[in-house]
Design a protein that fits this description.
- The structure is a single chain.
- The chain is α+β, with helices and mostly antiparallel strands.
- The protein has two domains: about 1-180 and about 340-405, FAD/NAD(P)-binding domain; about 180-335, no CATH class.
- Helix content is about 35%, strand content about 25%.
- It has helices at about 1-10, 30-35, 45-50, 60-65, 65-75, 95-110, 160-170, 230-245, 260-275, 280-285, 290-300, 310-325, 380-405; strands at about 15, 40, 80-85, 85-90, 110-115, 120-125, 130-135, 135-140, 145, 175-180, 185, 195-205, 210-220, 225, 250-255, 325-330, 340-345, 350, 355, 365.
- The protein has a six-stranded antiparallel barrel.
- Helix 9 (about 260-275) packs across helix 12.
- The longest helix is centred in the C-terminal third of the chain and has 25 residues, at about 380-405.
- The protein starts with a helix and ends in a 6-residue tail after the last helix.
- The structure holds flavin-adenine dinucleotide.
- The site of flavin-adenine dinucleotide has 32 residues, from helix 2 and helix 13.
């Protein structure tokens, strides 16, 4: 949508072909329905959130970045608000509103939007793009922008069609794989805590028994494992680790603000002061009730023990569990459930100044279809908006240059 509108505003005649009945189905469910549009952090930090491929985006972001995106939405009637960690959301907190703003803008830009129109084939003439085919019907075009997204959440329309379309013109596809994906636990210890969100905890990732990363934040217990921002962020490394056949564990520090000594003192005090109460009741002051069963299953300490009965060994076990709840990870949820598809069109084959294909003249590629993936925090949508904006303006330039004094098309 951003690519189409930008191209139209730059003077090109634009047809936007959308496979679904509605455009922006994925956009409408982003950020748990609130749409984390972008992040306000500065360009260097922003790029770091994309890992090694982030450098590709530097020029794109110089062309159209977070401030420009916020101004764009403000100019189109959508106010935004900055939240924890520099995350930008619509003030209304409603992702579908972002979609309607984009649709109105497309309309005003003069873009023709054709729905229920899956592009099945790219058409070429002498290694130049000549148009596309949709259900047997040919649409000639002097330039084509491919922005079909990745292969996750296929019900939103991103079913991975772009990989085949890009391959058909010789592009290399870095194998698509899930990124920002929930993890599956090997044991059922955390099942009783399903649906519980823990805030401000420490999560350490171990790969082959070695500490690989440690982050702080929110974690959600799911039906078969763990999710939430900390896990989604770590999941990229986990997916790669499983691809190598490595063993993966995570360790939760439920009380990162207290070191082991302070927490031990707290336990000693609680067991002493509340000596007649049972352990389950005493621990309620330290952890949510949904986690109690997990605690007793994993430590094998009897919940009916009274505070004054707790032995030194039992106290040490509880302390160890609170500071280092270890879970063996047996896998990750499938690509269809990933927030982002890692992999995609090889960036070496794309000109970062224009998003133009280096292989086929007047073909442009933008968005998640490219081999770009970032952490949660608004980075992925900004990349889609920025690459779309650049592709739109470069595609319009190419068409207008091609037609020189003729009518732009
Ligand atoms: C649940 C969820 C929450 C998310 N939350 C956030 C968030 O808060 N912040 C953030 O930064 N990122 C978030 N993301 C990631 C973000 O939504 C994507 O990175 C972004 O939407 C990618 O934009 P895109 O335009 O490249 O692809 P998409 O948004 O997937 O759009 C691709 C479009 O192309 C259409 N299409 C596909 N194939 C064809 C075809 N053959 N012919 C015609 N049309 C076709 C699709 O129907 C779709 O409309 C989230 C993702 C998910 C799944």
């Amino acid at each position: 949508m951003m690519a189409a509108g930008t191209a139209a505003r730059a003077g090109a005649r634009v047809l936007l072909l959308e496979k679904m009945r509605q455009p922006g189905r994925k956009l409408a469910i982003t950020g748990k329905g609130r749409c984390n549009l972008t992040n306000i952090c500065e360009i260097g930090e922003f790029i770091n959130h994309f890992g090694k491929n982030g450098r590709f985006l530097r020029q794109t972001f110089h062309h159209f970045f977070n401030r420009e995106l916020i101004d764009f939405f403000a100019a189109n009637g959508l106010q935004t608000v900055s939240e924890r960690g520099g995350r930008i959301f619509p003030l209304s907190g409603k992702a579908p509103e972002v979609v309607s703003v984009m649709r109105n803008w497309l309309n005003q830009s003069g873009v023709t939007l054709r729905l229920n129109s899956p592009v099945e084939e790219l058409l070429f003439q002498d290694n130049k793009i000549a148009g596309v085919r949709v259900q047997g019907e040919e649409f000639p075009a002097a330039a084509v922008i491919l922005a079909t997204g990745g292969a996750s959440y296929p019900k939103t329309g991103s079913t991975g069609d772009g990989y085949a379309l890009a391959t058909s013109c010789g592009h290399t596809i870095i194998p698509p794989r899930p990124a920002l994906v929930p993890l599956i636990c090997a044991d059922n210890f955390t099942n009783p805590a399903q649906g519980l969100t823990l805030r401000n905890i420490g999560v350490t990732l171990f790969i082959q028994g070695k500490k690989a990363d440690r982050i702080f934040g929110e974690l959600l217990f799911t039906e078969d494992g763990v999710s939430g921002p900390t896990i989604l962020t770590l999941s990229r490394q986990v997916v790669d680790a499983f691809a190598r056949g490595d063993q993966v564990e995570i360790e939760l520090d439920l009380k990162p603000a207290l070191d082991a000594k302070k927490l031990d003192n707290r336990l000693i005090r609680d067991f002493h002061q509340r000596g007649k109460e049972n352990l389950a009741s005493i621990l309620r002051g330290l952890i949510p009730k949904e986690l109690l069963l997990t605690c007793f299953m994993m430590t094998a300490v009897d919940p009916e023990r009274r505070g004054h009965q707790i032995t030194l060994t039992e106290r040490k076990k509880l302390l160890l569990w609170l500071k280092g709840l270890r879970l063996t990870i047996s896998g990750h949820r499938p690509l269809a459930e990933a927030i982002i598809t890692a992999g995609g069109v090889d960036l070496k084959e794309i000109n970062p100044k224009t998003m133009a294909s280096r292989l086929v003249e007047n073909l442009f590629i933008a968005g998640e279809l490219l081999d770009l993936q970032a952490d949660t925090g608004g980075y992925n949508l900004q990349a889609a908006f920025s690459t779309g904006h650049l592709a739109g303006s470069a595609a319009a330039d190419s068409v207008i240059t091609v037609d020189s004094n003729l009518t732009p098309s």
